[in-house]
């Protein structure tokens, strides 16, 4: 495994050489840099703040994610936790090995604070990562030491990238939170080279994974993020012990925990009580705050893959998720 690092922004970000690979989302013309990125075709201007190109307005549907990852920049990073939780999840869901990613062009869609960005960069891959929210700033603060990380802020529907440019595509914990999940899935596949590998997960349809939080979301998603976070932070420590006791019941514990609307990470092997509470607060807020949450049935996912003529794809149920992996 190889890993090159720097002490500040990645070399490609620091001297802006990698910006040459970006295209105007509107007209697909190359961009050139002055104080901002300017389209040579239509003349549109895209700001660059903190070394990160921005292709969306600051106010967008990902606002709650920007809030949570600013507060929890380090919470789920393996380097902070001291356990390979994110690494294990990424390699388990994708079926890839760290060695096969070395030197490959990888597109990470929806980076959040960069828990999987860190893992991908540690493999020696050349990682292009984006998020619609200002979580990209949290990602940069944690992972800018990696020389082969390219970060930008953009909508999944209007990417400033050349199609069929990537060897691998990974999108974990994202597409159910977009306005149109089918459009999201099919759009992402355009950026993968023929023969490239992909791994995308999505919440399983409610009929396959019912949970009490689904009854709360119509109200909670309308609450301003700071106010909702304060409520979650207050209630979670009171409900988590009950959830932990229920989860320990043989055979039915996983089902019983769904009756308590707080995230329970007993299965991850976290032993520190404060770490468990922090993860629970974060993921409970992540359940309740997004503007969109659109779980999907397996048959619909199969139809999308068939319509795209994706080869050798599989759909696996892992707890409350469907994981779709395969080759374009």
Keywords:
12 strands; seven-stranded mixed beta sheet; alpha/beta; 328 residues
Over the alpha carbons, how many angstroms does the gyration radius reach? 20 Å
What structural class should be given to the helix and strand makeup?
alpha/beta
Overall 3D shape: globular
- Mean model confidence by pLDDT: 93
Spatial order of strands in the largest sheet: 8-7-6-9-10-12-11
What about the largest sheet?
Answer: 7 strands, mixed
Tell me the strand percentage band: 15-25%
Low-pLDDT regions = 1-14
Q: What order do the helices and strands follow? A: HEEEEEHHHHEHEHEEHEHHHHHEE
Number of helical elements: 13
Looking at the chains present, what oligomeric state does this protein adopt?
single chain
Distance between the termini: 26 Å
State the helicity in percent bands.
25-40%
DSSP strand tally: 12
Describe the structure.
It is a single chain. The protein is α/β, with parallel strands linked by helices. The chain is 36% helix and 19% strand. The protein is built from 13 helices and 12 strands. The protein has helices spanning 11-14, 63-71, 78-81, 85-94, 98-101, 115-122, 135-143, 181-189, 213-220, 225-247, 253-256, 273-288, 298-307; strands spanning 31-33, 37-39, 45-46, 48-49, 52-53, 105-109, 126-131, 149-153, 166-171, 192-203, 311-318, 321-327. Strands 8-7-6-9-10-12-11 form a 7-stranded mixed beta sheet, with helices on both faces. A 3-stranded antiparallel beta sheet has the order 1-2-3, with no helix packed on it. Helix 2 (63-71) runs parallel beside helix 7 and helix 10 (225-247) crosses helix 12. It starts with 10 loop residues before the first helix and ends with a strand. Residues 1-14 have low confidence and may be disordered.
């Amino acid at each position: 495994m190889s890993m090159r690092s720097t002490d500040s922004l990645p070399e490609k970000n620091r001297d802006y050489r990698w910006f040459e690979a970006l295209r105007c989302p509107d007209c697909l013309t190359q961009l050139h840099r002055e104080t901002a990125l300017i389209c040579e075709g239509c003349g549109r201007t895209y700001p660059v703040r903190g070394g990160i190109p921005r292709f969306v307005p600051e106010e967008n549907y990902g606002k709650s994610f920007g809030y949570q990852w600013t507060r929890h920049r380090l919470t789920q990073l393996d380097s902070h936790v001291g356990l390979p939780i994110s690494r294990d999840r990424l390699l388990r869901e994708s079926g890839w090995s760290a060695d096969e990613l070395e030197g490959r062009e990888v597109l990470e869609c929806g980076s959040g604070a960069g828990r999987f960005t860190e893992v991908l960069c540690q493999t020696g891959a050349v990682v292009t990562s984006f998020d619609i929210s200002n979580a990209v700033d949290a990602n940069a603060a944690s992972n800018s030491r990696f020389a082969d990380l390219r970060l930008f802020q953009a909508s999944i529907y209007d990417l400033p990238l050349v199609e069929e440019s990537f060897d691998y595509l990974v999108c974990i914990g994202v597409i159910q939170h977009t306005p149109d999940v089918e459009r999201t899935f099919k759009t992402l596949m355009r950026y993968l080279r023929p023969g490239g590998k992909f791994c995308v997960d999505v919440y399983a349809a409610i009929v396959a994974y019912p949970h009490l939080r689904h009854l709360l979301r119509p109200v909670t998603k309308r609450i301003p993020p700071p106010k909702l976070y304060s409520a979650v932070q207050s209630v979670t420590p009171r409900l988590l012990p009950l959830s932990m006791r229920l989860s320990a019941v043989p055979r039915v514990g996983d089902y019983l925990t769904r009756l308590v609307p707080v995230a329970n990470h007993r299965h991850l092997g976290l032993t520190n009580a404060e770490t468990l509470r922090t993860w629970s607060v974060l993921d409970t807020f992540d359940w309740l705050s997004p503007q969109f949450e659109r779980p999907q049935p397996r048959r619909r996912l199969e139809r999308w893959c068939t319509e795209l003529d994706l080869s050798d794809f599989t759909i696996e149920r892992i707890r409350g998720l469907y994981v779709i992996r395969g080759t374009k």
